[in-house]
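Board notes, transcribed. Complex of a protein with fe (ii) ion.
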Amino acid sequence: MNSTEMISVNRLFDEDGILAGDILSPSGVLLLPSGLDLATLRSARPDAIELLKKHGVDSVPVKKHEPVTAEEFQRLVSTLSPPVVRLNPLLSRVIAHQMGVVYANIGNREMRERGVRSLFSVGGTLSSEVRRIPQITLSLGEDAERKLDAAFHGVNVALLAGHIACRLFPLWPDFIRSVTIGGLFHDIGKAFILSSGYSSEILKMLRDDRITQTHPLLGEALLRDAGVRNSDVLSFVRSHHEVWDGSGYPDGLSGENIPVGARIIAVANVFHNVLADKGEGKKRSDQAISSVIASTLGKFDHFIVRALLASIGLYPPGSVVELSDGRSGVVLETRERNLVRPRILLMTGLGKQRELAPEIVDLRTDPVVSIRRAIDDFGTTPIPPLAASGEGRSSVLFRKYRLPAKLE
Ligand SMILES: [Fe+2]
Ligand SMILES: [Fe+2]
């Protein structure tokens, strides 16, 4: 178990660990968010001790890093077989081929069971790679012959979903693993329906019909049947077509009642569908991405959408960004074709400047300044100056998630 202890603010930079709770000022302003790594804090906010003292905070709860047990280490090593030093471009291809074989024989129960078991451990390898290489989504697999499209879709959704999980929950390796594996298997039920020997006309009809809506349930059942007992993976596959506003299926869950891993896979799924369109002559463009943002409003967890877009260098409204000149601000609006050069409300208002009118930078007309990076990753990246924030910022930067439900 992780142990939490109260650390004197004076010793904050002598310790290693993670903040075990939000640090608030007496008036309730969020000073530091729960989950922040002290090593990150040291480099990003050398003035953190002064800040806390100024607000009368003299000790903070810190969770110590848990040493890895021999058992966990063994489990980790066993998932890396054969050992992979860095994500080989061939890895996703090999996994997709393996998946293609499973899909081709999905009607054969024995082969399906064996295939699912081996893909499950391969999914573990993939998630280790996702955690180790932050740019992993840039090596998304493609298949020139399109024969393995469904399999590549699974691999790419696994990579994207694992990547998002890793950005949002860097301290939860088991969760990242379950999301990656869930991404890999999310459409296995669809593969089963498509392999069932129906004529192409019937399949075309089924595709638009509610019958295809059974594929998440079928997927869950197939995985259970193959011996998968990881309740997170099962629930992510079951719920990957639930929609934020409650209009999804199979259970009509809404908002945060949808398992967070399923919400992540849903976003990765829609995003990969946009990317995959390019094979049909439609270029992936800012416009396409922009339409995804528009269509995702109210349908997907916007925090997750933003995490994904920020990780590929796009900044929808509400993103907190750092500019190339060191200033930071909130993205106000983005227009089609201008997603990378939006208008930004600067975080000014420090002390005596507070009475000044808000300063807005329009990157479309200011070619010198550009966005250096987004800074709304929970717990993983430096945070901007806090005194400048005002009230609204905490909801942008530090929205909380409950742990994924353990169904047991
Ligand atoms: Fe699906
Ligand atoms: Fe899908």
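The beta strands are 4-8, 18-19, 23-24, 30-32, 59-63, 320-323, 328-333, 343-346, 360-362, 371-374. The chain has 15 helices and ten strands.
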